[in-house]
Amino acid sequence: MTDEYKTITGDKIGEGSYTESKSRFLAFAHHVDNIDDIKSLLNQYKKTYYDARHICYAYMLGNERIVFRANDDGEPNNTAGKPLLGQINSKELTDILIVVVRYYGGIKLGTSRLTVAYRTAAALAIENSIIEVLQVKKNFTFSFPYEKTKEVMKILKEISPEILHQNFEQECSMTVAVRLRDAVLLETMIKKIL
After folding, report:
1. Is the separation of the CB atoms in 45 and 33 below 8 Å?
2. Is the dihedral of CA 179, 180, 181, 187 positive or negative?
3. Fewest beta carbons less than 10 Å away: which of 28, 97, 182, 192?
4. Do residues 57 and 84 make contact, with C-beta atoms less than 8 angstroms apart?
5. Which residues of the chain form CATH 3.30.1370.10?
6. Helices assigned H by DSSP within 49-104
7. Euclidean distance between CA atoms 77 and 151, whole angstroms
8. Burial letters for 66-85: b for 16+ Cβ neighbours within 10 Å, e otherwise?
9. How far is CA 62 from its chain centroid?
10. Domain 4-133 is in which class?
């Protein structure tokens, strides 16, 4: 099991546009953390682009990449949502929502050209995003006597977890976020000195 995953940063919305036979496809790639984020963004797009013919989307959530959905919003089956999800999968991304807004240009494209248009728009939105590799972390909380502080800090320096909370009193405690691959090692090393 890997403890890294790829996503796009939340600092920038990736945008792309594509025109095919007078139909315009406006694509947007967002970093999302949960279903509520997705619902909120989709509601915003429906309000902003109320005059568009279709607002299609696909998303992938979680470092294991098992929570996903694709929606064609009235386009022929698998011509919109599936190509968007295909672009997400081709880049092995997660925690991402891609929305493509279509303004119909009056000319029917047929399923193959429609699929290419949605796929191309999504690819442009991803291309204009910033992709980052993140680590899966596990939170680990432990307590130790004050006199063991030096030994604990030596272990933390070696493994370099992110310190989320620390308390140095009579009985000390810490909560750290450690990279998944180092979680068992950290736990073993801490138990060994206590």
Report:
1. no
2. positive
3. 192
4. yes
5. 136-193
6. 81-90
7. 61
8. eeeebbbbebeeebbbbbbb
9. 7
10. alpha beta
> Residue 99 corresponds to which tokens in the numbers above?
């929305």
CA distance 16 to 11: 16
Q: Which residue has the tokens 């030096």?
A: 150
Give the E-state strand segments of 104-136 in sequence order. 131-135
Backbone angles phi, psi at 79, to 5 degrees: -95, -15
CATH numeric code, 136-193: 3.30.1370.10
Whether pLDDT at 184 is above 90: no
Answer for the pair 72, 78: CB distance below 8 angstroms, yes or no: yes
pTM of the model: 0.80
* Beta carbons within 10 angstroms of residue 118's beta carbon: 30
Describe the chain by its helix, strand, coil percentages, rounded to 5: 35, 35, 25
Q: Report the length, in residues, of the chain.
A: 194
pLDDT band at residue 1 using 50, 70 and 90 as cut-offs: low
On average, the pLDDT of the chain sits at 92
35 membership: H or E segment, kind and range: helix 35-48
CB 123 within 8 A of CB 87: yes
Residue 125 in tokens: 């939105």
pLDDT surpassing 60 at residue 179? yes
The residues pairing with 96 across neighbouring beta strands, listed in sequence order, are 31, 60
